[in-house]
Amino acid sequence: MIKVEHLRKVYRTGKEKVVALDDINLELAKGEFCCIVGASGSGKSTLLNQLAGLEKPSRGSVVIDGQDVSAMNENQLAIFRQQKLGFVFQSYNLLPTLTAVENVALPLMFKGVAKRKREKMALEQLKKMGLGKRGSHKPTQMSGGQQQRVGIARAFVGRPAVIFADEPTGNLDSHTTVQVMNAILKLIRENNITFVMVTHERDLAACADRIVTLRDGMVLHDERMEHPKTAYEVPEGEADADLNDASFESAPQAPAQADAPCAPPAEAVPAAAPKSAAAPADTAGIKAALRAALAPQSEKSENSTAKPQQAAENNTPKENTTHENEA
Ligand code: ADP
Ligand code: MG
Question: What is the residue with the minimal CA distance to atom 13 of ligand 1?
Answer without folding.
Answer: 41
